[in-house]
């Protein structure tokens, strides 16, 4: 970075909040995605929207790439600065601006840690449902950029369903405001929904208005244990078919069960092929009725045991088991690759079996867990980046898993985003014409291509693995 540009950036944010030292550059050269790293030229920490705007005006003038990020916990390489430039860290913009009890909305800056925001909302007697597993470290801005999901996605939806307004800075430094505290707004294109999940490629989000809802009156949590993997997967479809929508419907296979139990010491049944973690919330009468019906469905599908938590302490232990799955698996080998393949809920059983077949075909270790109720599975490979041949087999396996998901009517990513990792497969899902439409949108927002360059759109689409049908 030239001295003049560096001096200008320091003048905007203050001497302490722009860094070019190697420690800062290395720290922000990677994210939660394994085997990806690229050094930025500098790291900047703005404190308000006006500073973000001034930064973008300067970078646009000199055509310098910009990657905005929160905690960097994403799993698609979305915040790796592929072309160098500046990494903009949003952690200083971490305030609650307004909690509006009359409209049940929250205005918040993007750098606030998600779990802290949720705790604030719940202390006020309200409920923000999206609960990504990373919420203790991820920021709400990062959740919005990736359209994060979570364990409660089945019943309550994902981040996009609760973002009703945004303030954002465009590549040229212009500030736009979309939506607001409105439940209805069809004035023009829905830019709010367009920016949610855009992975920092269209604008830098500087403020969000979130919809809140009343909290559920009660919750019940149960664990259904199966010696038959297919029976567990089939149960998911049966519950939805019975028109019951649980708050949480999570799945863990045997390798995941064993590793989680070693990690969390919860006394999980290690001889089971699969576990379903099921939670229902709402009015007490409805919850008791649904839990009884779900228990009957589990038993009809040959569950070996069904246990219902007696209190919230027991329930939290069960939820902790599921939330710790990735952390536990990451202890097994030097490299852990966590993916998400999403299919229609009715195809969960087929997808689980297909993942196992593919893992066996390529002789790789893949444990599967995830949000079975909304079809979002997380096949997770434990491997070693130093073993080039094994990594190649893992990549082949995941390519076939992505295509199997599409063959079953699914998608290549349900919540992790496209970033770098999924970009070579995006055309498989959306088709070439849609890619061109997306590129047109990108060009309209960011004509110089300086916002998070190299993400979403691949230089080359991967060749298909599975023969196409019909």
Number of domains: 3
Measured distance between first and last alpha carbons: 54 Å
Give the helix tally.
Answer: 16
The dominant shape is globular
The beta-strand count equals 17
Fraction of residues in β-strands:
15-25%
- Identify low-pLDDT runs: none
- Class inferred from helices and paired strands: alpha+beta
Supply Rg: 22 Å
Mean model confidence by pLDDT: 94
CATH topology of the largest domain: Uridine Diphospho-n-acetylenolpyruvylglucosamine Reductase, domain 3
- In CATH, the architecture of the largest domain is 2-Layer Sandwich
- CATH C-level category of the largest domain: Alpha Beta
Instruction: Please outline the major beta sheet.
Output: 8 strands, antiparallel
What is the helical fraction, as a range of percent?
25-40%
Secondary-structure map:
Layout: H1 3-13, E1 18-19, H2 22-27, E2 42-44, H3 49-62, E3 66-69, E4 86-89, E5 96-100, E6 105-108, H4 114-123, H5 140-146, H6 153-156, E7 163-169, E8 175-179, H7 191-195, E9 204-211, E10 218-226, H8 229-241, E11 248-253, H9 254-264, E12 274-282, H10 284-300, E13 305-308, H11 312-323, H12 325-329, E14 335-338, E15 341-342, H13 348-361, E16 366-371, E17 376-383, H14 388-407, H15 426-430, H16 432-445
Parallel strand pairs: 2-4, 3-4
Antiparallel strand pairs: 1-2, 5-6, 6-9, 7-8, 7-9, 10-12, 10-13, 11-12, 11-16, 14-17, 15-17, 16-17
Helix pairs in contact: 1-3, 8-13, 13-14
